[in-house]
Design brief:
- It is a single chain.
- By secondary structure, the chain is an all-alpha fold.
- Helices cover 63% and strands 0% of the residues.
- The chain has a two-stranded antiparallel sheet with strand order 1-2.
- Helix 49 packs across helix 52.
- The longest helix has 29 residues.
- The protein starts with 11 loop residues before the first helix and ends with a helix.
Length: 1259
């Protein structure tokens, strides 16, 4: 019933089956019988077809096959019965045999190819037979087609490629159309065929599935290496796709592959840049990695032609396909994505291809678009796991991505990239294995971190909190990678701005460990993190700068000094800083401070003054720097001590002040002075006291900080602690015990004299004066608490009888005068004063140091009491000196100056003589303040001495003496007396002269002498006026004193500023600021008018101080140098020009008082001696905080932005200094970031400045 040669023979086991089939067929009915008849007929037809084909000649076979083969292959798709299929195969085998034997026979390729696009192929059960047989016919027949026919086949395949089933069908047809593609690009046909091809492509959208699939097939084909057609896998291609290609190409030789690839590449090149880049570029790019030059060169040529036409900014499809071509897997969550961002899973990727893709994407500004970011990030992460060259390219792409990434995608992208960078380059945070890509990895890390830091969300801060400890630990353990790690840390630093207290305190233990690291780069990074992490009002914000202020590395030391000076008025509170430093250095917390203090007191009384060790790597130098800073904090916070007026208000050696003159502690609450901060402060100072008690020579002779020795610093600390402990009895007793050990010596008999009686030079004399003040303050407080009980008086009185020229005499004289000043000696006061005055009797003491100490002590006494005059005027005093004899004795001390070079510099007089002269002058001035016989003569003699001593230090010391003479010591504060001050002001104004007094060059000796006298008078008058105004500014009645002479003072100071003397000019600038502070508010407008008119009139520098040659030789010398530059004149002109520029700036901003604010800023000065700082303090601002809003109101702050870029360097520096002092910002970036609400005003004023009247402003 089923006749078939394939049917097995009948066997007993199959008889039943066959019988059942027959039985089943008998019951089918007429329909079944008709089907059976049709099949029988088809079988006969196939037989007859085969017979007819066999009897047909080859010449007549081609037209028959053109109709027959399509029908046969259609039948092959529909026939399911094996017998019929066998007959079809027999027919095809016959045709194939005939065609192979005769190459002239052409087969209907187009018709056969059309069957591949039929929908029936997908559902037919005979599809496999069809494909296998049809491939044989296609391979045989395509090459026999004429070029036009091959072109038509290629065009047909290109047009209908999307209708093919994905997989092997597309591979077959793509390979079949390659000859046609080659003919399209052939020289003779290109002109006609390429436009056809372009029209076909352009008629469809770029995302057409057929076009995309065709060019994707071209990409896959060109990716296959020419010599690897039988390889188990191909990099960059999915294993399933390679299986399809391999089945068709495994028989191809390398030469065959080269020929095929060049055909495709030529076709691609012929299309030019008209097709979308998303389709046309990638195939040539993948072919450019081929090892054979014939293919590689052609592919690179195509890429170069297309390269200028690429839209790397907005062509998302192109960027997406390019990115996905280099990926082996899709990003997490994007596996089902279709279109340009579809990624086929691959086992691996050719490094050369990935490198080319990465390099191309680096030029793109569109990779940061939201749709592309996940795939670009995934590509970067995969590239980091590739070869070193690919790592470099991936990291460079990541850097480009940070510049163009969409802000909404930044957080997730950063997390993925940074996590992968950490895992690849420093897994586990251990030692970094340095490679070519490692430096770039750190740089990339820092770049992403910086971008996160600018992002408004908190991801950057979260990243920094997590990664910074690991990165800092890496820095401490990797010397070779230190510079690269800093790149990453710089980005993390930017993320830490605005951290909360709980967040930044987590970094303190880590920074504590790193601040003592042996590597300078680590310590420098600690400083940078401290600057960023901690607010300037937090103790941590200054702590690490204090630790590194004396670092061995000069760069770190300078950076630490800069950090200490930053923040302006925003500094930690004294109490908070004391507790913080004690917790770090002494490892104590809270209630244990008292216990530690008692334990240290016992140690100080021991034979070797041993104290417990310091913690956190602190050294004695660290303690000294910390205490110096605490002293400044206390002074600026209003916690004054008796030492505040000893040597001025600025460090003796610092050109750049490390704190503003008046600071804010960051709170409106009065500063806390409870017992615990004072105990912490005292516990820290014990470590300096221990060195002093042990008799260390270094502690008493070598400066440790701010020009002070450890002894001086310890005494200042004791003095401040004494002032703060006035309400704490037990604490005061602790201080007294320490002061006795330091000042009077240890009771253990170690033969080390106390600092009050220690021999030495300048440092010992300074310490002796400080020690005396400590004694006086302690005795006063002790007497107040214990009903007049005296301390140490008998011992000090006995020391007055020590041998001449010894330090014991000097120390006891100073200490007794301090006791008398405090008025705690009662009835013994006159007797003690008489004994001290006895040292001034000629012949009683000839040592200059002892006499200087005595004069200083008597001056200090005379500031509060007239006891010196009382003892001298008392006939029963038993002294051999009268008032006049005493004054004459003081005048005699000046002979070494008036008869010498006219100045009191140490190189001219020596240390002791200089101190004696200064002390005698100041004592004269202070005695004159009490009035009485000889007082007016004191002032006249001081003025006369000044005319003979025009040197800077001498004038400053005499100015202090004259300003003291104008004071009223009967008041509590010793403020200036109005009548005396007015008289002295007028006297000094007369000395300063007026504009009309300036005459031409002298013509005779008398005129020359008159000019020299006038020069000295004006110099003395200007300097002394400034010293007097500085004292008046500290009192209450200064405005009344200067009200009538303010205009004259203003003109005199402006005239001095335009002079050739730099010292007098600096004094004139300081005088202008003090004058503005003193005048009444309602008079300041007129003062500014006078000031501006005086400055405007200074068009040239003319100064009567310029001498005229008085001999022929000098005239010739002047003529010879007349054409050369005069540095003094140039400096004077630049100074006047700067004043005019500042004046124009204040006028531009329509706020004249700003001129004074710009003048009153910290400046470097060479006149920093002790006397100069106390008298003039040219370094520091002098205006009070109350005037800040008046001088530079907040409304002017946005207008200052453009002046940070002013081409005039002195003006720009003045603006920067004022912004740092008033607003705690030192750069335009800080100004804009600290006050973000003022951005619109800044922009408005910046645009307005572009149209400013002055060229410098517009520039």
């Amino acid at each position: 019933f089923w006749p078939s040669s394939a049917e097995p023979a009948c066997t007993p086991s199959r008889v039943g089956q066959r019988d059942s089939k027959c039985h089943f067929a008998q019951h089918r009915g007429p329909k079944f019988n008709s089907i059976l008849a049709r099949k029988t007929g088809m079988s006969d037809q196939y037989d007859r077809t085969l017979i007819r084909l066999s009897s047909t000649d080859d010449e007549k076979l081609e037209p028959i096959l053109a109709k027959l083969l399509p029908l046969i292959f259609d039948e092959l798709l529909t026939v399911t019965e094996a017998p019929l299929r066998l007959k079809i195969v027999n027919v095809l085998n016959h045709v194939l045999t005939r065609a192979k034997g005769n190459t002239a026979i052409k087969l209907p390729v187009r018709a056969l190819a059309e069957r591949w696009f039929s929908p029936k192929l997908a559902t037919s059960v005979g599809a496999a037979f069809f494909r296998n047989l049809c491939i044989i016919f296609l391979d045989l027949s395509v090459s026999r087609l004429s070029p036009p026919e091959q072109i038509e086949l290629a065009m047909y395949v290109l047009e209908h490629f999307g209708e093919l089933q994905p997989g092997a069908d597309r591979v077959v047809l793509f390979l079949a159309c390659i000859p046609g593609l080659a003919n399209i690009a052939a020289e003779g046909r290109r002109k006609e065929q390429v436009p056809r091809c372009l029209q076909l492509i352009s008629s469809r959208p770029a995302e057409d599935l057929g076009l995309v699939a065709f060019f994707r097939a071209a990409t896959d084909f060109l990716l296959i290496p020419c010599g690897s057609t039988e390889a188990p896998s191909v990099g960059g291609m999915a294993s399933a796709s390679w299986a399809h290609w391999k089945a068709r190409l495994k028989s191809k030789s390398a030469a065959d592959m080269i020929a095929l690839k060049t055909s495709v590449l030529k076709w691609l090149g012929s299309l030019g840049a008209d097709p979308p880049a998303a389709l046309i570029y990638l195939p040539s790019l993948v072919a450019s990695i081929e090892n054979y030059d014939a293919v590689c060169n052609l592919a690179e040529s195509n890429c170069k032609r297309l390269d200028p036409e690429l839209d790397l900014a907005d062509d998302v499809d192109f960027l997406g396909r390019l990115t996905c071509a280099a990926l082996t897997s899709a990003p997490v969550g994007k596996e089902a994505q279709e279109g340009a961002l579809k990624v086929e899973p691959k086992a691996n990727m050719p490094a050369k291809l990935r490198l080319k893709v990465l390099s191309l994407l680096q030029r793109s500004k569109g990779i940061g678009k939201p749709g592309l970011v996940p795939h670009v990030v995934h590509l970067v992460c995969q590239g980091l796991r590739d070869s070193e060259q690919v790592q470099l390219a991936a990291l460079q792409l990541a850097l480009v991505l940070t510049e163009h990434i969409d802000p909404e995608c930044l957080a997730l992208a950063s997390a993925a990239v940074l996590q992968e960078v950490e895992a690849v380059f420093w897994p586990g945070g251990g030692v970094v294995a340095m490679g070519a890509a490692t430096p770039l990895a750190f740089r990339t890390y820092g770049s992403f971190a910086r971008q996160l830091g600018e992002h408004p969300t908190g991801e950057g801060r979260t990243l920094a909190l997590q990664s910074s400890p690991r990165m800092l630990a890496l820095l401490a353990t990797n010397d070779s990678a230190a510079q690269d790690i800093l790149e990453a840390l710089s980005g993390l630093v930017s993320c830490m701005r605005g951290t909360t207290e709980n967040e930044y305190k987590e970094f303190v233990p880590l920074l504590d460990r790193l601040v003592i690291a042996p590597k300078p780069v680590v310590r420098r990074e600690v400083l940078r993190w401290a600057t960023t992490l901690f607010p300037t009002t937090a103790p941590e914000g200054r702590y690490y700068a204090l630790r590194l202020f004396g670092d061995a590395d000069p760069d770190i030391a300078r950076a630490a000094e800069t950090l200490l000076s930053s923040g302006g008025r925003e500094v930690p509170r004294f109490a908070d800083m004391c507790s913080f430093l004690a917790a770090r250095a002494l490892d104590i917390q809270g209630g244990s401070v008292s216990e530690r203090l008692q334990a240290q007191a016992k140690g100080l009384k021991g034979s070797d003054a041993a104290l417990p060790g310091l913690s956190s790597g602190f050294s004695s130098h660290d303690i000294a720097r910390a205490l110096s800073f605490l002293l400044k904090l206390a002074s600026k916070e209003g916690l004054k001590s008796a030492a505040d007026d000893l040597f001025g208000t600025t460090p003796p050696l610092a050109k750049k002040p490390r704190l503003a003159p008046e600071v804010s502690s960051g709170t409106d609450v009065a500063p806390a002075t409870g017992a615990e901060p004072i105990m912490a402060f005292l516990a820290l100072s014990d470590y300096l006291g221990a060195e002093v008690i042990r008799g260390s020579a270094v502690a008493t002779t070598e400066a440790v900080v701010d020009g002070m020795t450890s002894l001086e610093l310890e005494l200042r600390c004791l003095l401040l602690a004494t002032s703060l402990a006035s309400g704490h009895g037990s604490l005061l007793m602790d201080i007294m015990g320490r002061a006795e050990l330091v000042l009077l010596g240890s009771p253990t008999g170690n033969q080390v004299p106390g600092s009050l009686f220690r021999e030495g030079g300048v440092a010992a004399n300074r310490a002796r004066r400080l020690g005396a003040r400590v004694v006086g303050t302690l005795c006063q407080q002790h007497a107040e608490r214990h009903g007049g009980s005296l301390l140490w008086v008998d011992a000090l009185e006995a020391e007055l009888g020590a041998p001449q020229g010894t330090a014991r005499r000097a120390g006891s004289a100073l200490a007794i005068c301090e006791l008398l000043r405090s008025d705690v000696c009662g009835t013994r006061s006159q007797n003690l004063c008489q004994k001290v005055l006895g040292l001034m009797v000629p012949g009683a003491e000839e040592d200059a140091a002892v006499l200087a100490a005595t004069c200083d002590g008597l001056r200090r006494l005379s500031e509060q009491r007239a006891l010196v005059w009382e003892v001298l005027d008392t006939s029963a005093g038993g002294t051999t000196m009268t008032r006049q004899a005493f004054l004459d004795r003081l005048y005699d001390f000046s002979k070494s100056v008036t008869g010498g070079l006219g100045d009191t510099k140490e190189t001219e007089l020596g240390t002791s003589a200089r101190e004696l002269v200064h002390s005698s002058w100041r004592l004269l001035g202070q005695l004159a303040a009490w009035g009485g016989e000889g007082c007016d003569d004191c002032i006249e003699r001081l003025v006369a001495i000044g005319r003979k001593c025009p040197g800077e230090e001498a004038l400053a010391a005499l100015g202090l003496a004259l300003s003291a003479a104008a004071s009223d010591p009967s008041t509590v504060s010793g403020s200036a007396s109005s009548e005396r001050s007015k008289a002295l002001l007028q006297r000094l104004l007369d000395m300063a002269g007026s504009e009309e007094e300036a005459k031409g060059p002298p013509t005779n000796d008398a005129a020359k002498a008159e000019m020299a006298e006038r020069e000295i008078s004006q110099r003395c008058g200007i300097v002394w006026l400034v010293v007097l105004l500085r004292r008046l500014a500290r009192g209450d009645n200064g405005a009344a004193c200067v009200a009538e002479v303010s205009e004259k003072l203003c003109r005199a100071f402006v005239r001095a500023v335009a002079g050739l003397s730099i010292f007098v000019a600096d004094c004139g600038l300081k005088g202008l600021c003090l004058l503005y502070c003193l005048v009444a508010p309602e008079s300041r407008v007129e003062l500014m008018k006078t000031l501006f008119s005086s400055i405007s009139n200074r068009t040239v520098v003319s100064n009567m101080f310029v001498g005229t040659p008085d001999t022929q030789a000098r005239k010739e010398a002047k003529d010879a140098t007349a054409t050369g530059p005069n540095s003094l004149k140039i400096t004077a002109k630049e100074r006047v020009d700067l004043l005019k520029d500042l004046m124009f700036l204040s006028r531009e901003l329509q706020h004249p008082p700003l001129f004074i604010g710009l003048l009153d800023q910290p400046v470097g000065s060479v006149w920093t001696g002790e006397v100069l700082r106390e008298a003039l303090d040219l370094q520091m601002p002098c205006l009070p905080d109350e005037l800040q809003d008046h001088l530079c109101p907040k409304s002017l702050r946005p207008k200052l932005y453009c002046y940070f870029f002013h081409p005039n360097a002195p003006l720009r520096q003045a603006v920067v200094s004022m912004a740092a002092s008033y607003f705690s910002v030192e750069s335009p970036q800080q100004l804009a970031s600290k006050f973000p609400d003022e951005w619109p005003l800044i922009a408005q004023n910046l645009v307005g400045a572009l149209g400013g009247a002055r060229v410098a402003t517009r520039e």
